[in-house]
Amino acid sequence: MSHQLLRLQRKNPKRIIGLMAGTSVDGIDACLAEITGNGTDTKTNILDFETYPYHAATRSAILEACNPETGTVDKICRLNFYLGKLFADAAKSIANKARVPLADIDLIGSHGQTIYHVPDSPAKCPSPQHENEIGWQGSGERGKAWASGYRGRSTLQIGEPSVIAQETGVTTVADFRPRDIAAGGQGAPLVPYVDFILFRDRDKGRALQNIGGIANVTFLPPDCGIHDVIAFDTGPGNMIIDRITELITNNASHFDEGGRLAATGLVNKRLLDSLLAHPYLVKPPPKTTGREEFGRPYADNLYRDAVCSGIEGPDILATVTVFTTRTIADSYARWILPRHPISEIIISGGGTYNTTLMKFLVQYFPSSVTIHSISTFGIAPNAKEALAFAILANETISGNPNNIPGATGAKGAVIMGKIIP
């Protein structure tokens, strides 16, 4: 087996499938790319990309698993293996679409589906001085720490990679976040390493802004080294917008296509100001967030309170759309612009297609800053993160550390990802 992995490590170029399912829980993004080299010598050529939407029942099951009140252990256990099959099907489908035999695929990199992410700083858990202090029944110092309210950092992505490897016959790298958390990081954001590889520029200060369920930025100062990279989650992306759309359309629509519904509403300043008071927004990087803070309960409470205040549905939607753009612009103003000028902002993710959101975003930046879609670089906006996990898998196989400690808060660079031959 070691000889097989060594051959794979040395092979150049490699055909790698990247699989990504985001916090929007809309489906599985699959990207097939030919990747040459590794590290800063990496070159990529996207062969094909597709999004495979979740069935409504699957989406409901995932959202149920994300909720501590309904995500029971038996449901999560079964869903882990079921999603593994769906991820394997997505890999087979993208290979078939690109007319590349599965036997010619060298590697699969899978992020999985996050169902819970706890990035907060861990409580101190006593280290055992003697072996008998760790009791199998939860006794000893660690058992006491748990009983007294131990709350360590943790994360859980499902979509069992052993199923992916078994169903496809392709070596699979998955479960990237836990190693960074084990090294004292927050397990996110992970894509900044890829941004550094692909988009650093000698002369330009570039911001890579992804607007998925959550929005995140990678800032690359001119001629930067990896320790110069600034990256963090700016706050909600499409997550609140999508849920408010469901509520005002009685589930007829799961997202505001093109931002057309938001365009019919008026921004309510009082509501916007209350949203901008969220404590996450003033928390300094490194930081990451997710559905636990800005998910369905948050959006449902927001909607209920707004309706009780007499605010109409389209106005709520317009306001949360501006909220997303303000959290992005304000994050830059707080954490990037005081130290660095920005030449251009490159947008990726589903938010790129929301014309109303993009119109609002442009208004918050000076005309000297060029804002454009990542498609100008030959990458479809929805393909970027799936491509990123193909590249991260290549780095794992190559034996290269693939986190950025300055972005995640980890104590050092580590090789993320578990390899399933």
Briefly characterize the structure.
The chain has 421 residues and is an alpha/beta fold. It has helices spanning 2-10, 56-66, 73-97, 140-147, 161-168, 177-182, 192-199, 239-248, 269-275, 291-294, 296-308, 313-335, 355-363, 384-398, 405-408; strands at 14-21, 27-36, 43-53, 107-118, 154-158, 172-174, 206-211, 214-220, 230-236, 344-348, 370-373, 418-420. It folds into 2 domains: 2-189 and 382-420, Nucleotidyltransferase, domain 5, CATH 3.30.420; 201-377, 2-Layer Sandwich (Nucleotidyltransferase, domain 5), CATH 3.30.420.40.
Write the topology of this structure.
Blueprint lengths: L1 H9 L3 E8 L5 E10 L6 E11 L2 H11 L6 H25 L9 E12 L21 H8 L6 E5 L2 H8 L3 E3 L2 H6 L9 H8 L6 E6 L2 E7 L9 E7 L2 H10 L20 H7 L15 H4 L1 H13 L4 H23 L8 E5 L6 H9 L6 E4 L10 H15 L6 H4 L9 E3 L1
Parallel strand pairs: 1-4, 4-6, 7-10, 10-11
Antiparallel strand pairs: 1-2, 2-3, 4-5, 6-12, 7-8, 8-9
